[in-house]
Amino acid sequence: MPEMLSHGLYKRDHDAAGPDPTLAEAMAGQVDGAKAAFGAYDPVPGHSVLTITGVYGTSVPSPVTARNTLVKVLDRRDHEPRVVVGPRTITPSGTTEPLECRVAEKPQPLAPEVVSVEPSCVWVDSSTVVKVALGMSSRRVKPSDIDLDHFASEVAGIRDEVRVAD
Questions:
Q1: By the 8 A CB rule, do 38 and 13 touch?
Q2: Beta bridge partners of residue 123, listed in sequence order
Q3: Helix, strand or coil for residue 132?
Q4: Using CA of residue 154, residue 160, residue 161, residue 163, what is the dihedral sign?
Q5: Under 8 Å CB-to-CB from 141, ≥6 apart: which residues?
């Protein structure tokens, strides 16, 4: 994973946990030679923590099934967040590759009364399936305040920065 993303807006957090090996196991039927990847990025002041979670390998035989499986696996792990906007397929300008994006509300595991708002987009290509998410406090932002098209454009740029070369 790169040290910086989105023109320096996010800096890699080297203290964050590494990739979850069970994710590669869960996705083994969807991604040939599956290897998990994870990166957490600290924001510049005034922004939220960005996470990149995914699996890469030699090929993705069924992209739609792989995308849907990744979302289900991560939702289970995250205690079934409640989707409040989307999912929507968005193809940002300047790219021909669609993203599936949504906004979800997630109770925090150690404090269920605290809910975070998480815009996220998922992409899949010939060897990779990835979810990019932005964790935001529900005290600071409401789901309806999130511009999903703008976030998708940011994720399209991040996709180009982190993509594993085919």
A1: no
A2: 130
A3: strand
A4: positive
A5: 117
**Domain residue limits, the chain:** 4-162
pLDDT tens over the chain, length 166 residues: 888 888 888 888 877 788 888 999 999 999 999 999 999 998 766 568 899 999 999 999 999 999 999 999 999 988 889 999 999 999 999 999 999 999 999 877 777 777 888 999 999 999 999 999 998 776 677 888 899 999 999 999 999 888 865 4
**Domain covering 4-162, topology:** Protein Transport Mog1p; Chain A (3.40.1000)
154 token code pair? 């940011």
pTM, two decimals, is 0.90
Tokens 């991604």, located at residue = 31
What Å distances lie between residue 163 and 9, 52, 109, CA to CA?
18, 11, 30
